[in-house]
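This follows on from our talk about sequence and fold. Please put the record directly below this note.
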Amino acid sequence: MELMRLNKYLASCGICSRREADKLIERGLVLVNGMPAEMGMLVDGSEEIYCRGQKVEAKDPKVLLLYHKPAGVTCTEKDYHAEKTIRTEVHYPIRVTYAGRLDKESRGLLLLTNDGDLIEEMMRGANGHEKEYAVQVNKPILASDLKKVSEGLYLEELDVTTRPCRTKKTGDRSFHIVLTQGLNRQIRRMCEQLGYRVVSLIRLRVVNLELGDLPEGQYREATEEEVKNLWKALRIGSEGEKIGEKEKHERGEKRGRGKTGAGRRSKP
């Protein structure tokens, strides 16, 4: 494990908050390798640490990595025939897995973490988490087709109509798109529906986290501020979805009073 401030390490082990850890260190209640700990000292987890007379058992701290996934790397943990996987390409001292997939041919921002709660929250596509992509197609794209994409398209293969989304033309054959759902190969399917073939697909942003100038094939740790803002956005999104679903349900009940049976959803 990389060097970490002692107060942060104690907090990551679930002992106390960082502020409380500082107070314990000041009072001489934290020992590192048999010696009283000093404020601001760094540890790597290999030390023998006691807090208030109890040995501190090392735990992997929760981490969040921003990884610039190259094309050709597969998001999988079970396909042993895949030539390149996240596990073979990302070498980090703590085991991490992806929070939201990015298909093999696509590249760009992929989030990697060991935080199960964060993974669960990110995988809830119904919560409307924003993901932004830069797309290039094989021929000039019509403004009318981008409008259709932004309004939502019926995908027969998946038997679903995509949610409305934001699009912006950035070139004769390129555009940006912001999605709030994560259907399988959604952007490629929408483009194919309108007669286009995706030549390049790059994920630029997930909620508040941006790819920026992170080199392809490299990763970096998210800052504390980025993680804090991510959780804030996810929780707001979850509450908004709950409220929206409640309102839909209430409207549906009002419309359905006095009727029997359930209506069938028609295909656009």
Remarks:
- The longest strand covers residues 198-206.
- The domain at 4-55 is CATH 3.10.290.10 (Structural Genomics Hypothetical 15.5 Kd Protein In mrcA-pckA Intergenic Region; Chain A).
- The mean pLDDT is 85.
- The CA atoms of residues 5 and 42 lie 4 Å apart.
